[in-house]
Amino acid sequence: MSNPPIAKSPSACIGVFDSGVGGLTVLNQLYQQLPNESIIYFGDTARVPYGTRSPAEILQFGREIISWMLQQQAKMVIMACNTSSAIVLDIVQAEFPMPIVGTIAPGAIAATKLGRRIGVIATPATAASNAYKRAILAVDPSVEVWQVGCPEFVPLIEQNRIYDPYTTEVAKGYLEPLLERNIDTLVYGCTHYPHLAPILRSLLPPTVQLLDPAFAVVETAGDWLKFLGLANPQPSLPTRFCVSGCPQDFAQSARQWLNCIPSVEKVCLTP
């Protein structure tokens, strides 16, 4: 079955996806930077976390989600998932007709503007891919980069355990090797991780800057929309929230970052 034609109307929606609530950090930036854009947000909560998945699984999930977004006539997709961006972005960009924006390149460019000794916390899959290190060094080979895989962070965030003392202990363990390297910048290499900002800030020296790539990701998306003539001049429609898992669980988890309880649909990606 062939894909439907790409929507060319500026009023068409932007599709944003992540494995769960992490992409809400990108969504909030969209609200601030591109308030006229209508958005469909998809959280693949039935299959979270992605960070311990195989590359083949991550590619399958990405293809399924982007195919669904194409059916929704999305004019652009923002892959608000660093694991997917690190492993399959190039593949899906070549396979689908709409622009697909990832997180790694914008985050890497922003990181080199901030620091010289850069630490990256990420999911195990993103860290193993070396995507951030390669991207940062491609921008500026003179900086130093260290990465740490953090397998427990996403499940803890999805379970609303940010302020659990156990989460602080886990964070100390992940940060220790980076602090030993005297990093001056810490990059959130997963869109979930900005939710941990209060905990991480309390554990880091004040000289260490925290970088959320979400701002640069949305800035990149906005540039592409302008270049392609797809920026929406009209007021946006309400955001449509969809998940593959339990809508009620997502709504409750999302509440603290959206300041409301969103209406959430359950979507079946495959027949």
TrEMBL record:
The active site is at residues 81, 190. GO terms for biological process: cell wall organization; peptidoglycan biosynthetic process; regulation of cell shape. Pathway: Cell wall biogenesis; peptidoglycan biosynthesis. Gene3D superfamilies: 3.40.50.1860. Substrate binds at residues 18-19, 50-51, 82-83, 191-192. Its EC number is 5.1.1.3. Pfam families: Asp_Glu_race (PF01177). It catalyses: L-glutamate = D-glutamate. One of its GO terms (molecular function) is glutamate racemase activity. PROSITE patterns: ASP_GLU_RACEMASE_1, ASP_GLU_RACEMASE_2. It comes from the Bacteria. Keywords: Cell shape, Cell wall biogenesis/degradation, Isomerase, Peptidoglycan synthesis. It is an enzyme of class 5 (isomerase). Belongs to the aspartate/glutamate racemases family. Provides the (R)-glutamate required for cell wall biosynthesis. HAMAP family: Glu_racemase (MF_00258). This is Glutamate racemase. It comes from Aliterella atlantica CENA595. The gene is murI.
